[in-house]
Amino acid sequence: xxxxxxxxxxxxxxxxxxxxxxxxxxxxxxxxxxxxxxxxxxxxxxxxxxxxxxxxxxxxxxxxxxxxxxxxxxxxxxxxxxxxxxxxxxxxxxxxxxxxxxxxxxxxxxxxxxxxxxxxxxxxxxxxxxxxxxxxxxxxxxxxxxxxxxxxxxxxxxxxxxxxxxxxxxxxxxxxxxxxxxxxxx
Length: 186
Description:
- This protein folds into 2 domains: about 5-85, Orthogonal Bundle (434 Repressor (Amino-terminal Domain)), CATH 1.10.260; about 105-175, no CATH class.
- A hairpin with a 5-residue loop joins β2 and β3.
- Strands 2, 3, 5, 6 and 7 form a 5-stranded antiparallel beta sheet that branches. Strands 1-4 form a two-stranded antiparallel sheet.
- α1 (about 5-10) runs parallel beside α4 and α4 (about 40-60) packs parallel to α6.
- The two termini are about 25 Å apart.
- It has helices at about 5-10, 15-20, 25-35, 40-60, 75-80, 85-100, 125-130, 175, and strands at about 85, 105-110, 115-120, 135, 145-150, 155-165, 170.
- It has about 190 residues and is α+β, with helices and mostly antiparallel strands.
């Protein structure tokens, strides 16, 4: 369960393009994507650098204001391996995606058991505050709720959102992470 195919789709790259650019064998990439093969750390880093470059180019092509370009577009091996989303991953995904979204934002929403959206993390500062800069995607292969340790350990279901407002959002969790989570609708 990794995010190789998700990154292929986001960056609009075929497996042949990824193989040619990284020097990795297509059969190894296919086996990795299928969860049948582990890659060496150097190979994972090479994939992260390549996908980072692709997402940076996608953002450059779609952002109206290039002066807001983040200093560093860099995906982590944790995101590639579907373990978590770091602040660096978050900034990279925002840059790549938001230019095509007509004002919508990449956000994380917190939902109650009845699927009511109660809190939204919309920017890098809030992402750092809410998750200490790292959103855990899975622990031992299982997705877990967000636990608000500051407020009596309240449990929330979290989702990655294409966000416009409390009443207008789209759950894109399964488009950005390899998850078994059921989509929540606005």
